[in-house]
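Per your request, structure below.
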C-alpha cells in the first residue's frame, strides 16, 4: 500500500466528526506538552504527552468508530496522517480530502 492509499484509508477510519475532534484535541494537548518538556527539561511531560495524545484517539476508535487504530499497523504513517489531518482542518482544507476519501460527516470547519 502506498502512502496515498493509506491516507484515504486513514480518513475513512476517522469518518465520524467526534473521532476527528478527539484526535485534534489529543494531538493539540500532546504538542503543547512536548514543547513544554523540551523547553523545561521535564522528561515526564513527554510521557504524559503520549498518554494524552494517544488516549483520546484510541478511545474514539473503540467507542465511536468501532475499529482498531491504524497506529498499530502503520505507526509512522498514522502519526504523519494525524498531523496532516489537523493541519488541513486548521487551514479549512480538510473537506476536499474527506470528499476524495468518500467521508460524508463534517465538523463545522471541515
Amino acid at each position: 500500500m502506498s502512502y496515498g492509499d493509506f491516507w484515504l484509508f486513514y480518513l475513512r477510519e476517522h469518518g465520524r466528526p467526534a473521532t476527528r475532534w478527539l484526535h485534534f484535541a489529543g494531538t493539540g494537548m500532546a504538542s503543547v506538552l512536548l514543547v513544554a518538556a523540551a523547553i523545561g527539561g521535564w522528561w515526564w511531560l513527554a510521557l504524559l504527552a503520549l498518554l494524552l495524545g494517544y488516549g483520546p484517539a484510541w478511545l474514539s476508535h473503540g467507542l465511536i468508530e468501532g475499529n482498531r487504530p491504524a497506529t498499530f499497523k502503520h505507526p509512522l504513517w498514522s502519526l504523519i496522517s494525524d498531523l496532516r489531518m489537523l493541519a488541513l482542518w486548521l487551514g479549512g482544507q480538510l473537506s476536499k480530502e474527506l470528499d476524495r476519501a468518500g467521508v460524508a460527516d463534517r465538523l463545522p470547519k471541515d
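Residues 12 and 103 are 6 Å apart (CA to CA).

Regards,
D.
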